[in-house]
Amino acid sequence: MRWLRRLLGGRKVQLDPGRQQALLHDVQSRYGPHARIRFNEQVDALTGSLDSDDGLVVATRIVSQVADEAHVDLQAQAQEIHRRTGRRLLVHRRNYRPLWKEAGPALRWPLFALPCGFHPYAQVAAAVTVVGTRAPRLDRVTDPNPLVTRVFEVLDLTTSGWEYGRVRVDTDAATLADRLIVSAGQVLAAMDDPPRLPPAVRELMRRNNTVAVHDPSSPRAVGGINLGARMREEFLV
């Protein structure tokens, strides 16, 4: 595996666990819905502060933790639905869309209330941006394969939430989706042997519809996003 060869035999990367912990604390404490600046401004500030190898490690942790906690949350929701109704729901990380198609109205979109406190439109959007822009450095600090899988999981949760989970598609939501798509494409392009695209992505790539994008503070539509077209642009290269 290229990433392991780079870690063991390539030029040594100087990482500072203390610096990583300080960055992580700063990301958790200073940013999110409680911050006094808009989400896009938070993302700009965060991507700047994480623009280093230590920042890249922190960004990978954020993406992985969010994906892991979202999966645990959905499993717990499925178990609670079974306890109350006897209805069994299957929670598959590789493809969340069947779950949301079947039980969307009964599910709570997990990304707004994870234990880690990372907000999808602030810390998560910034983390995936850093992962994408620094993708050529990924194999110096981690295995890109499970990471890109987690990026796709968050993308799947985002788009499924729009379609089946009553998540409002505003400019912040659309920006998150676009950053996830672009970053996934950048990571795939940097890999020697990229994995196959997951089922949810392949399903959306066959579509060509545009989703209305609204202003965050009003019901006014301010644009649109064609997820299928964006994915084809990034993944069919």
Describe the structure.
With 237 residues, the chain is mostly helical. It has one domain. It has helices at residues 2-9, 17-30, 39-49, 53-85, 97-103, 120-133, 138-141, 144-164, 171-190, 199-205, 227-235; strands at 211-214, 221-225. A two-stranded antiparallel ribbon has the order 1-2. Strand 1 (211-214) and strand 2 form a beta hairpin. Helix 9 (171-190) runs parallel beside helix 11. The longest helix is centred in the N-terminal third of the chain and has 33 residues, at 53-85. It is globular and about 50 Å long.
Strand order of the largest sheet: 1-2
* Domain module tally: 1
The assigned structural class equals: mainly alpha
Report the radius of gyration as a whole number of Å: 18 Å
Approximately how much helix is present in the residues?
55-70%
Mean pLDDT: 94
Specify the number of helices.
Answer: 11
What is the string of SSEs from the N terminus onward?
HHHHHHHHHHEEH
First-to-last CA distance? 23 Å
Unreliable residue stretches: none
Shape: globular
Largest sheet: 2 strands, antiparallel
**Residue share in β-strands:** under 5%
Q: How many E strands?
A: 2
Write the layout of secondary structure elements.
Elements: H1 2-9, H2 17-30, H3 39-49, H4 53-85, H5 97-103, H6 120-133, H7 138-141, H8 144-164, H9 171-190, H10 199-205, E1 211-214, E2 221-225, H11 227-235
Antiparallel strand pairs: 1-2
